Amino acid sequence: MELLAVQLKQEELCTVKDLALQHGVSERTITRDLQLMREQGLPIDADRGRGGGVRLDRNWGVGRMNLAYPEAVDLLISIAVAEQMDSPMFLASLGSVRRQLVASFSPEKRHKVNRLKARILIGSTASTYVQRTINPPPKRVVQALHQAFIDQGSLVIKYQREDLAESKRTIEPHYLMLNYPVWYVIAFDHLRNGPRTFRADRILSADMTGEHFRLLPKDAFQETLDRNGLLI
């Protein structure tokens, strides 16, 4: 329905028949989706005259976004990261946005989001050498790491060290740390039976195992952070 809402806002008038043809569904399906959108509060106007159609009020938009819970969590965490980095640019309204997002959550979900935020650490800026060697990690790796971090689920990863040697590990991603612009995964490594730090862009593949872990305190990882020269 998101694509349908965007189309209705951008175009003057769309007939149900044309919408059904464009989206490859029946007119009945389009009619049902339009009704659901109205029930969700979207101001859909209908012109029943000759050559008429339906459209979404163009003034609708800002302040009326309907975010799914995972999307709201991601946005809230992104705001928290920006605030922790203390950048002077574009932060004037972030506090207001954050408060509105938090207010939309139930107390239980607020607690969950606060726990997630506490697991994201902001360190110092990465060295020039490190910045020259970074590459964007594969999208599938980012998605798996994101899900495992939120769900406290373990991952099987293929990891490439600086000397290009590769190894297969089962890890528990307890914390994420940003040494701008490089992200690190602070994890319990089952291969080494202890805490280890992995550069996210050196993870070549990642798959969920279906197993979950109990969160360890940050202090349990301080030694490995010190060993890797990562400063919080």
From TrEMBL:
Q: Which Pfam families match?
A: HTH_11, WYL
Matching entries from SUPFAM superfamilies are given as: Winged helix' DNA-binding domain (SSF46785)
Task: Domain (Helix-turn-helix type): give its ranges.
Answer: 7-51
**What InterPro entries does the database record attribute to this sequence?**
CBASS_pafABC_assoc_protein (IPR051534), HTH_11 (IPR013196), WH-like_DNA-bd_sf (IPR036388), WH_DNA-bd_sf (IPR036390), WYL_dom (IPR026881)
Instruction: Look up the domain of life of the source.
Output: Bacteria
For the WYL domain, which residue ranges apply?
141-207
Q: What name does the UniProt record give this protein?
A: HTH domain-containing protein
Q: Organism, per UniProt? A: Pseudovibrio denitrificans
Top-level taxonomy: Bacteria, Pseudomonadati, Pseudomonadota, Alphaproteobacteria, Hyphomicrobiales
